[in-house]
Task: inverse folding
C-alpha cells in the first residue's frame, strides 16, 4: 500500500550505510541524509509550519543523529530513530514559540464525533483528478484543518509509518489515546477530502453530488 | 456485527489489529452494508493518498548546509579506522 515502505533490500542497505557511517564514512551518512531529509523536512513543517525553524530542525536532527550514532541500537530502523529525534527537536521549538499548542497534546479527549458523514463513493484513483501541486494544496489544507494533537498523530502513524507504540512514546501519550486520536483524524480527513474526491450523483464535478444509496457491493475491501 | 459495532472496531480493522473472528464478522457486514463499505474504503483511500504524496524537495542550499555541518563535525576520513 505504501510507496515509502522499505523493501528488505533497502532496509539492509540502510543498515550497512549506518554501519559504514559509524566507522567514520561520512559519505555513507550523507547518503542517509539525502534519502531521509525530504521526509524529515516534511515532518518538521507539519509541526512548525513553513518556517526557518523547520529548516533548523532538519539540520539539528541529522547533526544529533550523527553525533549520537554510537547510541543507535539497531533494534529499530534508523529512519524511525531520526523521526523520533526530529519530533523531539520540533516539539522543543514549538514549546518556545507556541506553548499552548504543545499543551493541547495533554488535553483530554472530547466526546463523540458529531456531524453527518459523507457516505458517497469516491472516484477510482481520485487523486489523479488533480495536478500534483493542486493535490498537495488540498492535502495540506485538510491536514492543517485538524487540531494539532490529531494532526501530529496522523503524521507519525499514517504518513511516517511509526507503530502505535512508537507514536505514543514519541508524544508521551498512552496507546489508547493514540488509537482514538488516529481514528478521529482519519475520519475528519476523509470528510475533508470527500468534497474533492466523491462521485457526484449526476456524474459531474466532484463536490456536486449527493449521498449514494446504491446496493451493497459484492466485494470486500479487506 | 451492526454499523455501530463496526464504528467501534474501525480503527483496529484499518490497522490489521482485529482478531480473525472479528475481522470475518466485520467483512460479512461490509458485504451487505454499502455505507459502511464506503466508509472503510474511503478511509483506506485517505491514508494511502497522504502516504503516497511525495515529500518536498529539500532546497539545494539547505541540503548543503546540513552536509557541511556534518562534515565539520566529522573526524577526517584518513583518521578513521586507524588504531
Result:
Amino acid at each position: 500500500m505504501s510507496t515509502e515502505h522499505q523493501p528488505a533490500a533497502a532496509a539492509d542497505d540502510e543498515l550497512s550505510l549506518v554501519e559504514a557511517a559509524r566507522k567514520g564514512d561520512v559519505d555513507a551518512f550523507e547518503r542517509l541524509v539525502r534519502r531521509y531529509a525530504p521526509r524529515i523536512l516534511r515532518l518538521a513543517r507539519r509541526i512548525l509550519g513553513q518556517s526557518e525553524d523547520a529548516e533548523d530542525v532538519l539540520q539539528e536532527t541529522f547533526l544529533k543523529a550523527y553525533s549520537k550514532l554510537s547510541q543507535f541500537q539497531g533494534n529499530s530502523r534508523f529512519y524511525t530513530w531520526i523521526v523520533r529525534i526530529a519530533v523531539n527537536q520540533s516539539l522543543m521549538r514549538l514549546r518556545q514559540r507556541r506553548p499552548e499548542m504543545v499543551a493541547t497534546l495533554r488535553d483530554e479527549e472530547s466526546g463523540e464525533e458529531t456531524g453527518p458523514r459523507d457516505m458517497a463513493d469516491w472516484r477510482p484513483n481520485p487523486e489523479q483528478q488533480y495536478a500534483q501541486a493542486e493535490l498537495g494544496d488540498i492535502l495540506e489544507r485538510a491536514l492543517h484543518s485538524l487540531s494539532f494533537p490529531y494532526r501530529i498523530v496522523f503524521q507519525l502513524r499514517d504518513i511516517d509509518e511509526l507503530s502505535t507504540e512508537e507514536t505514543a512514546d514519541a508524544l508521551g501519550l498512552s496507546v489508547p489515546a493514540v488509537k482514538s486520536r488516529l481514528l478521529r483524524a482519519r475520519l475528519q480527513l476523509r470528510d475533508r477530502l470527500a468534497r474533492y474526491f466523491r462521485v457526484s450523483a449526476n456524474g459531474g464535478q466532484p463536490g456536486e453530488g449527493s449521498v449514494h444509496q446504491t446496493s451493497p457491493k459484492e466485494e470486500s475491501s479487506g | 456485527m451492526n454499523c455501530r459495532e463496526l464504528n467501534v472496531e474501525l480503527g483496529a480493522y484499518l490497522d490489521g489489529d482485529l482478531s480473525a473472528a472479528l475481522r470475518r464478522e466485520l467483512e460479512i457486514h461490509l458485504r451487505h452494508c454499502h455505507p459502511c463499505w464506503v466508509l472503510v474504503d474511503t478511509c483506506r483511500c485517505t491514508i494511502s493518498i497522504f502516504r503516497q504524496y511525495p515529500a518536498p524537495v529539500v532546497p539545494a542550499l539547505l541540503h548543503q548546509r546540513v552536509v557541511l555541518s556534518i562534515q565539520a563535525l566529522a573526524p577526517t576520513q584518513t583518521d578513521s579506522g586507524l588504531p
About this structure: The radius of gyration of chain B is 24 Å.
